[in-house]
Amino acid sequence: MKSLSVFRAFSLFLACTHAFFYNASLDTRSMALGTLNTVVMGKTAVANPFYLLRRAFFGHEKRSALQSTCPQVWYDIAADFRREFNGCSRYASTAIRFSFHDAGGYSSKNSPYPPANGGADGSLLLSDVEIAREDHNPMQGFREYMLSKWNDYKDQGVGAADFVQAAGNMGIRSCLGPVITTMIGREDSSEAAPEGTLPKAFGQGSDQATIVQLFADKGISARELAALMGAHTVSRSFAQQKSGVKYASPQDDTPQVWDNGYYSQTQHRNTSSAAASFASDVNLAVPGTNVGESYTEFGNSGASWAKAFSEAMLKLSLLGLSEDKVASLVDCTDILHWDVE
Ligand code: HEM
């Protein structure tokens, strides 16, 4: 008798939850399961058993974004980029900067708007207005290249925002940098990100305090900022001649090698070197400041930089996404596990 009432109560519970999930809007269902997921699993963006629950309750339209294994098309994309980024080509280094500039459109000072508040939403690829801004010079040609590549894959469910972030991570890998956790499933926006969210390399706004504040508004600490700046280890400048930087000047002595030389070379500049630091690099590197101390730390320890860079790069790639969206992403890091020639 007792087991019969337990069975009836359980059936009633199932019927209620079923009715709730099928009658509630997709967003309400998503929120409810997202909260459950956060409470039980914590806030980390990893695949977990709640994807199964989510898939059972969501309609067809959300299914592709909620699968838990990385779709095959991403392995094809990785093989494609791997050929063209090989040897830390210019495409590879520009892909890294491009991913930063797309995600960097986020600021807590922006008025919130979906899907990523100006952050990692693919708008740098999709918006003619955004890419035309001086902040992004000279990446307009690279955008054309990325658009033509993306056109080859978009019909297979490949989003622009994911494409941009994954390409950046493939650029890092092609330069022999660390494997960055690569998540897929963002939503795209063709609305230009708000202006004034990206750092200045010279002149007004290139001082340390302004840059630290700009990154703090994105939720990125001084140490994380220092770690990210290490990407200038593979940087060359093609559009800063008016600020006195020669065309194609590198920002450290070994622009085709992913190493921590950028840090010590920026702090102790050698006047006979062909490397040209931007005012922003020099201002951030000043010893004795918060950011400068991290420059010293990363200059002394490549391992410490690799760890901090990998974590900060993942954070950057998720800027502006809601917690619920982050929890629904699929881990495609495996596409970067290739043996780089
Ligand atoms: C204070 C922050 C930063 C400033 C002011 C800055 C500025 C610049 C500038 C002016 C260039 C040269 C563009 C050109 O003339 O061709 C450049 C290149 C580059 N930046 Fe940054 N950057 C910053 C942070 C970052 C971050 C956070 C990343 C990535 C995590 C990054 C990655 C790169 C890369 C890879 C290049 C080389 C691009 C290429 O080869 O086409 N930068 N950056």
Automatic annotation (TrEMBL):
Q: How is the cofactor bound?
A: Binds 1 heme b (iron(II)-protoporphyrin IX) group per subunit. Binds 2 calcium ions per subunit.
Q: Which UniProt keywords apply?
A: Calcium, Disulfide bond, Glycoprotein, Heme, Iron, Metal-binding, Oxidoreductase, Peroxidase, Signal
Q: Name the residues annotated as catalytic in the UniProt entry.
A: 101
**PROSITE patterns documented for this protein:** PEROXIDASE_1 (PS00435), PEROXIDASE_4 (PS50873)
Gene3D superfamilies in UniProt: 1.10.520.10, Peroxidase, domain 2 (1.10.420.10)
- Please name every pair of cysteines joined by a disulfide bond in this record: 70-332, 88-175
* Residues that, per the record, bind Ca(2+) 1: 102, 119, 121, 123
Species assigned in the record: Cladosporium halotolerans
Q: What is this protein called?
A: Peroxidase
**Which residues carry the site feature described as Transition state stabilizer?**
97
Annotated signal sequence range: 1-19
Q: Which cofactor does it need?
A: heme b; Ca(2+)
GO BP annotations, alphabetical order: cellular response to oxidative stress; hydrogen peroxide catabolic process; response to reactive oxygen species
EC numbers: 1.11.1.-
The family database entries (InterPro entries) matched by this protein are listed as:
Ccp1-like, Haem_peroxidase, Haem_peroxidase_sf, Ligninase, Peroxidases_heam-ligand_BS
Q: Which residues does the record give as heme b binding sites?
A: 232
The Swiss-Prot or TrEMBL record describes its family as follows:
Belongs to the peroxidase family. Ligninase subfamily.
Kindly give the SUPFAM superfamilies that the UniProt entry links to this protein: Heme-dependent peroxidases (SSF48113)
Q: Which residues form the Plant heme peroxidase family profile domain?
A: 52-336
Can you provide one Gene Ontology molecular function annotated for this UniProt record?
Answer: heme binding
* Annotated binding of Ca(2+) 2, by residue: 233, 252, 254, 259
